[in-house]
Amino acid sequence: MTETREPIVILERADIYQGDRPVLNDVHFEIKNGEFVYLIGRTGSGKSSLMKTLYGDLWLHTGSAKVVGYELHNIKRADIPFLRRKIGIVFQDFQLLSDRSVEDNLSFVLRATGWEQQSKISKRIAEVLMQVGLGTSQKKMPHQLSGGEQQRVVIARAMLNEPRILIADEPTGNLDPEVGDQIMQVFKTINNAGTAILMATHNYEFLKKFPARTLKCENGNVTEG
Ligand SMILES: Nc1ncnc2c1ncn2[C@@H]1O[C@H](COP(=O)(O)OP(=O)(O)OP(=O)(O)O)[C@@H](O)[C@H]1O
């Protein structure tokens, strides 16, 4: 069992910047394989900046970070797409391609990441849609789905390449509370099956209903909450 608790995110003395402006200083924490971690903090406290740094959208300024085996302090631009394949990213706004079906949104990502065989593509799409409770929606267009269903497709898309961690920035921010709870259940199910999750949220009800480790961004620091 030791392997399952190996850290997949390690930050040491990391400084997070937006351009030349420091946002978070001296950040150090680990996330272990299979862990569920909330990221909380007021608007502008640096949650999104921290997440963007983890998936290579912001350069790490100083310090070191290792994410799913990639050293962000040494990473080459050409390696960033490979880093992102091992991370599933889920945003608040759904960002599905509106001109194509659920199935085509998902196969687009698989083909772009090197999948070629149609039978394998179809099988994987069916698996991830089952995982998020949308087994019968392959042929639907995004506009035919509710907000909660669209977010499920986005989560399915993030799971396509079996990431070791899902990074979710306010994934329920645009949803009604009841639908948000259902999406939270989807994340819990995915986490129970072994994928680590780092989720930024303003929804403190989740912390009570679904307790988990919490990191807090405050006054330029990240602390255990
Ligand atoms: N693209 C950007 N360019 C310059 N500064 C930015 C940019 N995005 C964010 N910032 C600034 O960086 C700081 C941290 O913002 P960030 O978005 O990381 O906070 P947050 O905790 O995610 O906020 P929210 O909860 O509103 O999403 C803020 O002062 C913000 O104004």
From TrEMBL:
Record keyword Iron present: no
SMART domains named among the record's database cross-references: AAA (SM00382)
Domain spans labelled ABC transporter: 9-225
TM region positions: none
GO cellular component, one term: plasma membrane
Keyword flag Nucleotide-binding: yes
SUPFAM superfamilies tied to this protein: P-loop containing nucleoside triphosphate hydrolases (SSF52540)
Any one GO MF annotation of this record: transmembrane transporter activity
Signal peptide span: none
Pfam family, one: ABC_tran
Keywords: ATP-binding, Nucleotide-binding
Family: Belongs to the ABC transporter superfamily.
Function: Part of the ABC transporter FtsEX involved in cellular division. Important for assembly or stability of the septal ring.
Name listed for the protein in its UniProt record: Cell division ATP-binding protein FtsE
Origin species: Dyadobacter frigoris
